[in-house]
Amino acid sequence: MKKEKWAVPSGIANSVVSHLRLHARVYALALPLVMTLAPVVVAEEPAVAETEAEEAAPLPSHVEWMTDVAAAQALAKSQNKDLILFFTGSDWCGFCVKLEKAVLLQPGTAKRLEERYVPVVLDFPHGKPQSEELKKQNDELKKKLAVRGFPTLYFVDADLMPQGQMVGYKAPEDFWNSFDEIVAVGEKVSAAKAGAKVAEITDYKQLNAILEAVPEEVLKSGWMETMRKTIDASRGVDDAIAQKWSEKLEQFEREIAEQQFNSDLAAGFMKLKREGASPEDVLAYFDEAATDAADYPSRVLTVKFLKMRYLSEVKKYDEGIAIANEILASEAAGEREKMMTEAVKKQMTRFKEQGQPAGVPAIRMIKPGE
């Protein structure tokens, strides 16, 4: 792997200029974000379609994006810099390309990024060939930092300890406002480290100062071991610090377990759908999942919500309405969850009376500028 210029493919650049189009099959049973399960999206075709017009010249990149993370780390250490990790899907992710065109490939971007950071691109293409070594590197870092969507930019130090993140497309002004905030965080973290590697620090007060400088949204992505180290070092000496990070660590461990459960539940469900499983088999899958999650009310709620939406899809409205009533009566359901469940219940009731299928269209067009 080598240091290389990163440029938007010419056909993609042309299509972004003319129109940004995203075709995606969004399954109607995806749990709303308020219930922590990310929507399941299966791409029907590349998110940015090629046009029949003559291809425009590739957009020039004024930033030198590396692809070898280890080499980028070595360079960052030699230059006393941090890293920017750009997680993208270069040949299918419309908003990744839009971010590149609007911000990352602009002439003024290079100076601002490279003053403090070594830029690294981690690409997850659908059709572009990659070496197995590069795929393995990108997959491992995506898992380590719990990247859940594209585009995502992670700002990390030379040891890959996170300092901030940007998720999704941001217009230039919003991007640079967030960038300045993350730079300020990086400066606070660097000051707290005082030139030492986090892994080599043993003083609990210094570790506590570092953790307090890191935004909560990235603490879970690379700082949990440091939290454990801080707890061990402060226990019996400063119990307030030990308790604070113990509670935070327990919270993160619960959240990670919930996210893994949701991910596994969705993956198993979509596998059954792809295989053409019968409604009886799908419902049995949900019942088994609910039994396994019996000790975790929030997980049971997730299963019930997906089961309710599936019952709506297969026109088993009476059973779906019964599940909706269970959710509405659950102490684990918050106000927003109840509000959304009530909306689904009303929809099922209406479709039952009309004798029509419930749900949303399988194909949704995302227009330019969305």
Return the CATH class of the largest domain. Answer: Alpha Beta
Largest sheet: 4 strands, mixed
CATH superfamily of the largest domain: Glutaredoxin
Q: Which bin fits the share of residues in helices? A: 40-55%
CATH topology of the largest domain: Glutaredoxin
Low-confidence stretches: 2-60, 358-370
Side-by-side strand order of the widest sheet: 6-5-7-8
Task: Give a description of the structure.
This protein has about 375 residues and is an alpha+beta fold. The protein has two domains: about 5-195, Glutaredoxin; about 275-365. The chain contains 14 helices and nine strands. The chain has helices at about 10-20, 70-80, 95-105, 110-115, 130-145, 170-195, 205-215, 215-220, 225-235, 240-275, 280-290, 295-315, 315-330, 335-355, and strands at about 5, 20-25, 40-45, 65, 80-90, 115-125, 150-155, 160-165, 365. Helix 6 runs antiparallel to helix 7 (about 205-215) and helix 11 packs antiparallel against helix 12 (about 295-315). It is globular, with a radius of gyration of 24 Å.
